Fold:
Amino acid sequence: MPREAFIDTMVQKKEGFIRTGIDKLDRLLEGGIPGGFTVVLLGSPGSSTEILVKQIATSGNVTYITTEETKQEILDTINRFKWPVPDIDFVDISEKYYSNVLLGEQKRVSIYEQRSKLKLKELIEIGSTAMPSTATASEDFLAILSNRTKNIPEKKIIIINSLDFFLSQYNQEEVLRTVYAIKVNNLKNKGALLIVMTKGVHGDLFERKMEGLADAVLELDVIQKGSSFERYLSVKKMRNYAKKIGIARYVIDDSGFVLEMIERIM
Amino acid sequence: MNQTDMRKKENMQRSWEDGPSREEPQLASWQESAFHAALGKLHTEHGNLDSVMRTGEAFGRGLYAQRIKDKPDWTIKEWLKEIEQDVCKPLGTEFTFTKISHDVVTTFMNRNPLVQLSQERSAESLFNFGVMRGLFLSAFPQGELVMNKIKNEDHPELIFKTYASAKDKLERERLIRTFTFLKKEDGA
Structure:
């Protein structure tokens, strides 16, 4: 195989592999994600990781756990790209979070908006002494994540977008234990578990632990070259499939995530 | 160089006036990377300041996991000592404590190297609040961090409470709403 080649060969459907629904990504992965694999998707802001996972979600047979955007926002993006809308099983933690915590607070804080001329100092002083109009009880989002990923049918794709939310609410060790439990369930079901995480926030040690736990690591990066930006997807790790390790340049166009060129590392 | 001179030199190197520790440049660069990720999220995810606070909290919990030896029965004084030595000083962040009791600490931040990195003052304030909240709640899950008032120019007074009331638990959301409102007022 040449070291550098345009992706122009047909991807073959392979037994035990789960297709991502993005033809060229499946070609890069030489058939898709091996069944039972836990894949960590490390992305920098601006690398359009969220577009990639939404496109994968349209492949069908997906449980999508969303923490950053509501179900409706995801569906709006899917419609904007004119992707097919399959019956995605959404676990909308974002909606729960905003309705339980933030919207309950909105009523109380809206008074500030009527007092638009107040200074920061006054605003903060008033806010601190005002009594809340509603009491809110926070949910255990990690328990929701754990429960909703149990008893999932075989060969299903589970997308967690993103782990950042749980890492802001819980200690790293608690999150790691839950991810490990989901990984074990996924292994049993021979599905594909995709975990999205922002690069550079949680520390090298945690990233290394996640990379160690994962069967595959895909990294999305955006690099400024002069006045333009180039985006790269690297397959950094693929357990038992070393020859899949490589880098592909990609762009986001009207059809979504488009891989342009593959460079094999091994 | 005698021992006193050596100690002086060492203290100068550790002083907050010198900025982030040169012995641990990776720590300051981790903070910068997390802050840039927070700003990136602010620009790509509907301009929601909540994502900035969450990134700060995740970074604070990461700092705690990787820099502080966890223990189940922290006292607030022990926690402060650890945070000051192993997190604040190496990061070049300086706090002044105005009240320390067994369950409440009142402080305000004198210096923060992130100020030089961004013009987004709301984002920077919420990110810092998130970092301190993440560090604090990692040790005191029943507690809460409250921003009381601006003590002097640009330096908010922070109150760490080991046991939070229902009202205190709404502090985080109150701040997000307040800063979102201020950001709109500024036309940012």
In short: The longest strand of chain A covers residues 228-238. The interface with chain B takes residues 44-46, 68-69, 101-102, 105-106, 108-109, 112-113, 116, 120-121, 123-125, 127-128, 131-132, 135-136, 138, 164-165, 167-173, 198-206 of chain A (CB under 8 Å). The first helix of chain A runs from residue 23 to 28. Residues 1-10, 111-117, 129-136 of chain A have pLDDT under 50 and may be disordered.
